[in-house]
Amino acid sequence: MSTQYTTRHAIHPADSKSYDTTKLREAFLIEDLFLQDEVRMVYTLYDRLIVGGAQPAAGPLQLETIPTLRSENFLDRRELGIINIGAASTVTVDGKVISLQNKEALYIGKGVKEVIFHPADSGKTQFYFNSAPAHHAYPTKKVSLEEAETVELGSLENSNHRIIRKVLINSVVETCQLQMGLTELQPGSVWNTMPAHTHDRRMEAYLYFDLPEDQVVSHFMGEPQETRHLFVKNTQAVISPPWSIHSGAGTASYSFIWGMAGENLDYNDMDKVAPTDLK
C-alpha cells in the first residue's frame, strides 16, 4: 500500500512527567514522515489533527481516506493544508493541476473528492500536510510566498533572527480551524519561539526542515515549570499538546512549519512565558 498511518493518543501532562526518553519520543516525535512513493500520516487525538507527508518519485500518489475517518473520501469532513518543502511540482485537486514551488502553500477545503501528489521533473519531491475537521466548505486557494503575511522578528545578538511567513491563516485564506505557516531562522540564529508560550485553546505541530543531515534541533516541550527536550533531525515532526511550550535551538540554522487547530483563529492568542520563568 502507498498509504501508511498510525494513531497517537492524547497525553495528560501529569503522565508525561514520568516518561523516559524512549516513551517521550514515541508519544510526541514523528521520525519517519517521508518515505519514497508513500503517503504517511499520523492521526492525533489532539483536536484530531492529522500530520502527513507525501514523497512521490516513481509516479503520482493519491491522498486516500484511512479507516479511522470512516469516510468515502479523505476530505468529506476535513480541510487540508499543504506546503511544498521539496522541488517544484504539482498537486491535482478534483482534476485541476496546481503548481507549487518550494515553500508555497495550498489550502483545500471540505468536500474535495480527489487530491493527487505528483513527482517533480527533477529533484526530490516532498509535500508536508496538516488536516483538521471542518464544518464548512471553503474554496481551494494557492498561497505564494509573496502573498503570505510576512514578519521579521528577533535579532542576531539574541540568536533568534527569523522570518515568519503566515501562509494559511485567516488574514490570508478562509479556513474553518486549520492554520499553517513557516519560520526561517537566518544564518547565525538558532532559537525559535523564544520567549516560549502555551495556548490551551489549540494544539500545534512542528516540522523541522532545511536542516543539514548531520545537525539536529533540540526541541523543548512540556509545562513551563516541567520542561523536557527532544533531539529532532531534518524532516521530522513534533506533536505539541495545548499545555506544552514549543521552542527549540539548533546546531545550525533551519526552517520549520507550524500548524495549528483548535478553538479559534487568532494567531496572537498565546500565554507567554518569560525565559527566566522556565524550569
From TrEMBL:
InterPro entries: KduI, KduI/IolB_isomerase, KduI_N, RmlC-like_jellyroll, RmlC_Cupin_sf
SUPFAM superfamilies: RmlC-like cupins
Co-factor remark: Binds 1 zinc ion per subunit.
Pathway(s) it belongs to: Glycan metabolism; pectin degradation; 2-dehydro-3-deoxy-D-gluconate from pectin: step 4/5
Catalytic reactions of this protein: 5-dehydro-4-deoxy-D-glucuronate = 3-deoxy-D-glycero-2,5-hexodiulosonate
GO molecular function: isomerase activity
Enzyme class of the recorded protein, top EC level: isomerase
Keyword terms of this UniProt record: Isomerase, Metal-binding, Zinc
Binding locations of Zn(2+): 197, 199, 204, 246
HAMAP family per UniProt: KduI (MF_00687)
Protein name: 4-deoxy-L-threo-5-hexosulose-uronate ketol-isomerase
Organism: Pontibacter saemangeumensis
Gene label: kduI
